[in-house]
């Protein structure tokens, strides 16, 4: 004998399920987390040679993370290290132990996340807009080439560099109090500490 399901008069339609819209911050965190398995992004932690592929990465601080990054060779000598105020760029040499207190994202994966550079990724993950304070900027990705003024809070520091942490030479640098004017070109990197870009 077949069954026939008929709605009874007292049956009410099922309540509509509300779709929760994720914030831009949560969407970005999910997108970055999805890159972990592809070895295009790496969470805070300690790594050995081979864990992180050789190349350039954006370093991003976030709520609850630290600011330190370092890579050592097999003898335990520091190849490069940096304390990041907010965001920056590092070059992984793949020669030994890496200590990473922030988030590392391959620069090759940034466009797939819909961001131009470390600054924009930092802003989305940390719910900030128009960030112009201390950080390692990549000219052409995080800010356009041109003439800028930095204003210090304490002993400010500005350095124009040829590349990321671990693969650069200093082109120009200055410790200053007050204001300091400098020029940057596409492809250069700008390290600002205890100061912010005001124009």
Can you tag this structure with a few keywords?
about 200 residues, mainly beta, five-stranded antiparallel beta sheet, four-stranded antiparallel beta sheet, 2 helices, 13 strands, about 10% helix, disordered N terminus
Descriptive overview:
The termini are far apart. The strands form three sheets. Strands 9, 10, 11, 12 and 13 form a five-stranded antiparallel β-sheet that branches. Strands 1-8-3-6 form a four-stranded antiparallel β-sheet. It has a four-stranded antiparallel β-sheet with strand order 2-7-4-5, with no helix packed on it. Strand 4 (68-72) and strand 5 form a beta hairpin. It is mainly beta and 199 residues long. The longest helix has 10 residues, at 24-33. It has helices spanning 24-33, 118-125, and strands spanning 41-42, 45-47, 55-60, 68-72, 78-83, 87-92, 98-100, 103-106, 135-138, 146-161, 170-176, 179-184, 189-197. The protein is built from two helices and 13 strands; from the N terminus they run H-E-E-E-E-E-E-E-E-H-E-E-E-E-E. Residues 1-8 have low confidence and may be disordered.
Let me know the number of strands: 13
Radius of gyration, in angstroms, nearest whole number: 23 Å
Helicity range of the residues?
Answer: under 10%
What is the oligomeric state here?
single chain
Low-confidence stretches: 1-8
End-to-end CA span: 82 Å
Number of helices: 2
Order of helices and strands: HEEEEEEEEHEEEEE
Instruction: Bin the strand percentage.
Output: 35-45%
* Average pLDDT taken over every residue: 89
